[in-house]
Design goal:
40% helix; homodimer; eight-stranded parallel β-sheet; alpha/beta
Chain lengths: 375, 375
């Protein structure tokens, strides 16, 4: 197996399945549980990489689909790889592009070979297959690369999901075969199986055989109802090896993160914190807050008095409101930086809580403040 | 007179009227000739103030018209003034708002009292007068404030300009009368008179009587043909006191700056460098360059090999092109930072050249590279 990634569990919470761990890559180590900011197009939107790092980010995610179309992974390779291209010297994870091409709907066609699709930019025709996805990710040089899997539609029949899942396993074999840089890049497999426990078990059995350096639980992120999400998470992490990092893709709200961590998940990513920042929404220790609210017009206090980020150390709510209302770019820059720091700080607190066997207490405390929940 | 501003001439070029000097304010000193970046709405667009400072900026300009409408100068005053509100601890200059309200055309009405106008944002009715302009600027707390003058239309008759200029002098008296913070803020007068030398002389005579800490040459900036601009500049600076800083408003292209410096001007401002940056245009030692050009697709060298800015130290043209084509905000951030550094660096070189009595040689050398001029 690849020596490019090591994972150790440092402490297990006494009362839940939450675990604190450390992933070590050639670009540095990552304390888990970890939230990974998304830099879709080789940039975390509206932030310099130094600012991303200042938030405590340990690893970022970039998107294969977008980068293969523009600028093209050959250009990134010629530039010396994604780390150098975008000036980010810590670990990077790339997705497989699968999620994006399956989202194209009528503009894509699935065969055993892979997915033919028309670019969302200019309609040009492309093919994404296990081999091509891995080739692109090899070009990008990310530390963690993801297997090319099929994300079955939400309304798919059990029969469809069975077939799709079997194909995902065949595609995983082809990904492993195609992967050129096992010394420097670590390939994660992805469990599928929809909301069928037996299919999840079968999927896990098949992908675990390959003894990969890490595994993701696919098909339960964006737009899932929380009950459905939790239903799968109640058993899915246990189907994966204890000693490998577990990753749930596309989650970035505190509750989904807490529910995942509680069930033994180590990694998550989402565009949510930076996307809502661009719409003037801040995540704070007292819950979400819309900076355009008139009550902040003469509020000269910080965005979140409990936050230690650049934005909160430096600017007032009144100034941030002014920037947002004027459509000033600095508003996006400052709120993005704050929201990333908020989630990073939350994960720091989660890790400390696990270390001290009080994850449940910290979760309850956090929810009572963030969601105003009576406990 | 105000002790809030001192000006000393450190060296005069042996062959031209160019002079190197130093303005000292309560927020620090400014080496002249100086280019002042514009932060219209209490932010230099798409830049953190630390990045603005990193470019070598010594003073920035903010706009009275915009800030009086939003967030309102009372809010900025309550926040502790503009420096604190926007986190900029070096000198700030504010304009009078005159230029903007006169540009409103049919939406404004000029009387002896001042200008009634409808806001460009919501049509709400406002009044800007000498007293109101100074009140707003006193609220903002900028180090240098500008007199409220009338900018006569370009096609105005000589008769109109005569009347307008006489009114500008009366308005200046009212500005001086209204100015509350003479201990901390320095009021500059503005010479008018269009393209009539005798009217310029009259205007200068009248405003110089007030022994103000500095003077601007009005009405010859944006959109002026270079010959007309230079025609006025050939005599106008000499009509102002030698021992006071001279300011030409709204110029930001290298040639207009060089022509002004050569004729004894010390200060200039313009949105140009940051505005063109947002459109993918970079100012470089070899002239202007459009980053979207296809020839940069695989150009892994810096934007300008002779530049020492963050952008040029850190990123490739290929990456900057990618960001711009994708509409990524980081493109605006990085090109704005570069362009401001370019002009700041150019002014540093101008000051050194003056010091060494070789302004003319430096100008010729700069033009030959930037404008590809045969010399």
């Amino acid at each position: 197996m690849s020596k490019a990634l090591e994972f150790e569990i440092l402490h297990k919470d006494a009362k839940t399945k939450a675990r604190k761990g450390r992933i070590t890559t050639l670009h540095g180590s990552i304390e888990t549980p970890v939230f990974m900011p998304v830099g879709t197009q080789a940039t975390v939107k509206a932030m310099k990489p130094e600012s991303v790092e200042d938030t405590g980010a340990q690893i970022i995610l970039a998107n294969t689909y977008h980068l293969m179309l523009r600028p093209g992974s050959d250009i990134v390779r010629e530039a010396g790889g994604l780390h150098k291209f975008m000036n980010w010297n810590k670990p990077i994870l790339t997705d497989s592009g699968g999620y994006q091409v399956f989202s194209l709907g009528a503009m894509r066609k699935i065969t055993e070979e892979g997915v033919r699709f028309a670019s969302h930019i200019d309609g040009s025709r492309h093919m994404l297959s296990p081999e091509r996805s891995i080739e692109v990710q090899n070009d990008l040089g990310s530390d963690i690369i993801m297997a090319f899997d099929e994300c079955a539609p939400k309304d798919a029949s059990r029969e469809y999901i069975e077939r799709s899942q079997a194909r995902t396993t065949r595609w995983l074999e082809r990904c492993i075969e195609a992967h050129r840089n096992t010394d420097t890049q670590s390939l994660f497999g992805i469990m599928q199986g929809g909301f069928y426990k037996d299919l999840r078990e079968e999927s896990a059995r098949e992908i675990v055989k390959f003894d990969l350096p890490g595994y993701a639980i696919g098909g339960i992120s964006v737009g899932e109802k929380k009950e459905e999400f939790v239903e799968v998470l109640d058993y899915a992490p246990d189907l994966l090896p204890e000693d490998k990092p577990r990753y749930v893709m596309g989650i970035g709200t505190p509750d989904y993160i807490f529910e995942s961590v509680e069930r033994g998940v180590d990694m998550f990513d989402c565009v949510e914190p930076t996307r809502i920042a661009r719409h003037g929404m801040a995540m704070t220790s007292e819950g979400r807050l819309s900076i355009k609210n008139a009550r902040f017009e003469r509020d000269f206090g910080p965005l979140d008095p409990k936050c230690d980020c650049y934005t909160c150390r430096t600017y007032s709510r009144a100034y941030l409101r002014h920037l947002f209302k004027e459509g000033e770019t600095l508003s996006q820059m400052l709120l993005s930086e704050h929201n990333l720091r908020f989630l990073s700080h939350m994960c720091e607190n989660i890790r400390t809580a696990i270390d001290e066997d009080r994850f449940t207490e910290y979760k309850r405390d956090f929810y009572s403040r963030y969601y105003n929940e009576e406990t």
